[in-house]
Design a protein that fits this description.
Length: 151
Amino acid sequence: MKILLAIDGSKYGEAAAKELIQRPWPSGTEVRVLSVAHPIPFIPDPVFVITAAHYDSLEKEQKRAARDVARVADEIARTVPSLRVSTQVLEGSPKKEIVEEAERWGADLIMVGSHGYGPIERFLLGSVAQAVALHAPCSVEIVRLQRPASH
């Protein structure tokens, strides 16, 4: 089985990683921990101020993504040594890159955390989890944070 775990450095991605770690998986299961560096959009400008900001943002995002996938992959390998773990950092739109990596790699399952946006935020910001679920070539599990019990 091939599991693509998409993380973004948030507590929502952490929840998806914890869910993956807690489950029993078949022998030979491979996990690819993926993060997508998503910088501020590139907009050509005559004085290169926005261009410089784009490349600075991209560099910071790439470092963040590399750090996040390494940390999560180490935790998975330490906690569940029977899983074969690899990492991948891509650049671009998370919605598009997660689906395309699942296709390229031949993933059987994509696990992704949900930020739990309401309808207005989803409309304005878009939902990566929703887009992945709609367009993925395989099964998708959207992991939500556990809500604290109310008394």
